[in-house]
Amino acid sequence: MIKACLFDLDGTLLPMDTMAFAKVYLNALASKVKHLISPQKLIKAIWQATEAVIRNDEEDLTNEQVFEREFIHLTGIRREEIWPYFDDFYAHEFPALSKYTQMSPLSRKVVETAILNGYKVVVATNPVFPEMAILERLRWAKIDDLPFEWITVYENSHFCKPNPRYYLSVAEKIGVHPEECVMIGNDMQEDMVASTVGMKTFFLTDYRIDLGKPVYPVDEEGSLQDLLAALENRTGPFKNE
């Protein structure tokens, strides 16, 4: 019996071209701290530190701690020198980047329907961003006021997609078995890997990302409208067993 719905954010509940957005976002962040580090070096360090977070398999460290350790090692800049500028960026400049995303009223309807059906609902976005940035993107999607069971951010998470331990940790956090979850997302490699720990999956095709390999089994695929219909009618992975 399904007890929880895990929703990806970027390209799922918040329609966007993820790579195009990342480029704009990193350029804006680099401009904020160009007096401390050249934009080119900053962007390279962020990508490398993020890759270290994604590779990390140490459960005693949060993603934030891994990112900080790697970023400081790569740049030689102390946290107290640059983090206040990062925080100020997310508080004041980051909100303006909403224009590079879209808002679909279907996103709110989908989440509300899942909650109405009695499911625990998680924002299972890849936790490589700080909480400030993820909560801001929830505002862009007009779903920030909904009662989510859990939101994965880099301060409260120890693993990232596509590590299967990320999905196991989310299920453990909300008190359900992986087999009682449906993972909903638009990325074959990052989201559908949830099937390897026993979760059911819904592959969203509106902004699908598929690098070709590996390929994971999908219980159902379709648009956001198709997802809403499946939730409303309790069909596909949401069918009562």
Please provide a written account of the structure:
This protein has 241 residues and is an alpha/beta fold. It folds into 2 domains: 151 residues, 3-Layer(aba) Sandwich (Rossmann fold); 80 residues. It contains 8 helices and 6 strands. A 6-stranded parallel sheet has the order 3-2-1-4-5-6, with helices on both faces. Helix 6 links the parallel strand 2 and strand 3. Helix 1 crosses helix 2, helix 2 runs antiparallel to helix 3 and helix 5 runs parallel beside helix 8. This is HAD family hydrolase. Keywords: Hydrolase.
Ends: how far apart?
6 Å
Give start-end ranges of low-pLDDT stretches. none
- Which CATH architecture of the largest domain? 3-Layer(aba) Sandwich
Strand order of the largest sheet: 3-2-1-4-5-6
Estimated share of beta-strand residues: 5-15%
**What is the number of strand segments?**
6
CATH topology grouping of the largest domain: Rossmann fold
Q: What class do helices, strands and sheet pairing give?
A: alpha/beta
**Series of H and E elements:** EHHHHHEHEHEEEH
Number of domains: 2
Kindly state the percentage of residues in helix. 40-55%
How confident is the prediction overall: mean pLDDT? 97
* Bulk shape: globular
Helices, by number, come to 8
Main pleated-sheet profile: 6 strands, parallel
> What is the assigned CATH homologous superfamily of the largest domain?
HAD superfamily/HAD-like
Radius of gyration: 18 Å
CATH class of the largest domain: Alpha Beta
Keywords:
alpha/beta; single chain; 241 residues; 6-stranded parallel beta sheet; 8 helices; Rossmann fold
